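Example S7 (structure tokens).
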């Protein structure tokens, strides 16, 4: 099999960002603040090109009802909310008041706070509070990796036909080929679970740390 994917060097990554949808001042400030204030956790933030992709895909599917599992300091939620119409709604699930307090400030600054509802608490429990019928247009999962099967189980039945699920970190920096911790092993099993789920069409893209796109049939 011929290898078609280019190795992504730092310079090439910068080119991709600059020639896609470069971060505006709000996004760049959020990236900078997260890296400065939370250096030990900053890698949990989505990449700038991934943030632009989230906005693009939200608009592409015409999403009005969306959910996010794992909000951190808010870059992914801000990106999704920007892709929603003015009367759209994004429900975010997270367990940290500290991290999401940063997110709230940037939602306000970007003028999308009225589109976002933040629910603090274990997502495995709080997802069950959503209406059970298929109503979601878009979902983004980027939280604790061992919880992915549970989040998937709660979200898939709530997706409307044609709805899009995005799942982050499905390559684990390449460690899916040689898993060495609980998160790695969980993702290996999760990827197999998604591959065998006949409720969705799916593709795994080498974007950032691996991004699965799954379309509800």
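Recovered sequence:
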């Amino acid at each position: 099999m011929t290898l078609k994917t280019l190795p992504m060097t730092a310079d090439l990554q910068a080119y991709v960002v600059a020639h896609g949808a470069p971060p505006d001042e709000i996004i760049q400030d959020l990236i900078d603040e997260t890296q400065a204030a939370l250096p030990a956790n900053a890698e949990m933030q989505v990449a700038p090109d991934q943030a632009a992709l989230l906005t693009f895909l939200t608009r592409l599917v015409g999403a009005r009802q969306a959910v996010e599992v794992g909000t951190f300091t808010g870059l992914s939620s801000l990106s999704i909310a920007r892709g929603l119409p003015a009367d759209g709604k994004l429900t975010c699930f997270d367990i940290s008041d500290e991290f999401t307090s940063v997110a709230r400030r940037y939602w306000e600054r970007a003028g999308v706070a009225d589109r976002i509802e933040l629910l603090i608490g274990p997502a495995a429990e709080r997802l069950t509070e959503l209406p059970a019928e298929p109503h979601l247009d878009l979902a983004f999962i980027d939280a604790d990796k061992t919880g992915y099967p549970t989040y998937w189980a709660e979200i898939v039945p709530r997706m409307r036909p044609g709805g899009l699920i995005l799942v982050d970190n499905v390559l684990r920096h390449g460690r899916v080929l040689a898993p060495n911790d609980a998160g790695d092993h969980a993702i290996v099993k999760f990827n197999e679970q998604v591959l065998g789920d006949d409720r969705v069409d799916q593709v795994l893209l080498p974007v950032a740390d691996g991004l699965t796109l799954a379309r509800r049939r």
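Notes on this example. The chain has one domain: 10-38+45-216.
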